[in-house]
Write a structure and sequence with these properties.
By secondary structure, the protein is α+β, with helices and mostly antiparallel strands. It contains seven helices and nine strands, in the order αααβαβββββββααβα.
Length: 247
């Protein structure tokens, strides 16, 4: 019904606003049974067919993507990198804490010492623009019980506490970022409240990554690898949904 109802918007504007009385008088052209009643069965079957066609097209796309990505996989060499060399720009969070900022459900992500919700504690006002930091980076959690040593990839801009340090590299995207955070998290077992993840210790951490023939991080391999995993998971889900249609 939604596409048909939305067509009513063509009749209205700021000079002729919709109201309760006008909406009551509106008429919708819908499929009807032989008895003149709304044919809900037809509408449901029609939309299921549309959904099924879209699903089949999507399945084909992801099958092809998985096939292409698999061709790019294969043997790979690995090399150790100092975190400070991998991320030439390492900056700490700028916020002084939630007591100094107003919470807002429609605001910006506020990051803190947690590995839950991709590091997001809540959403806050954007008023203090000096504390807003750019996304497309990796957030390294340096404090917090149960969270110290973890890292998360952040795509969006954010405000964060000083318990986190953010690494920037021009090759980062959500695929290379999640590849690196998965490996970077292996270090979490070495830290505790007696041996904290200071900024200095963080910069000296070692991350082992796949490399190309020049010995540089193989960003293309990392991206292809994560795309392959993503496609495989989506493909599994879509097949499950497709099986539901069979019933």
């Amino acid at each position: 019904m939604i596409p048909i109802i939305n067509r009513l918007s063509e009749k209205y504007s700021f000079n002729r606003e919709i109201n309760d009385e006008r909406i009551k008088r509106e008429k919708l052209l819908l499929p009807a049974t032989d008895k003149g009643e709304i044919d809900f069965a037809f509408m449901s079957a029609f939309m299921k067919d549309v959904e099924h066609n879209i699903l089949n097209t999507t399945l084909k796309v992801f099958k092809e993507r998985v096939s292409v990505n698999k061709l790019k996989m294969g043997g790979v060499n690995w090399k150790n990198f100092l975190l400070r060399d991998l991320f030439p720009t390492l900056v700490a969070g700028k916020s002084k804490g939630l007591n100094h900022i107003e919470k807002s459900d429609s605001g910006i992500s506020y990051l803190g010492a947690t590995n839950q919700n991709n590091g997001v504690l809540c959403f806050v006002s954007r008023e203090d623009k000096s504390t807003i930091q750019k996304g497309n980076c990796i957030a390294f959690i340096r404090n917090g019980e149960g969270s110290m040593g973890y890292s998360v990839y952040k795509a969006e801009d954010f405000i964060a506490t000083s318990d986190m340090t953010f690494g920037y590299n021009n090759h980062l995207n959500r695929y290379t970022g999640t590849f690196i955070t998965t490996i970077a998290d292996w270090v979490r077992g070495k830290y505790n409240f007696g041996y904290k993840r200071s900024a200095n210790r963080l910069s000296k951490e070692i991350i082992t990554l796949p490399v190309d023939n020049d010995g540089s991080p193989d960003w293309e391999y990392m991206e292809d690898y994560m795309r392959n995993i993503e496609s495989a998971h989506i493909l599994t889900y879509l097949k499950m949904v497709q099986n539901d249609f069979a019933y």
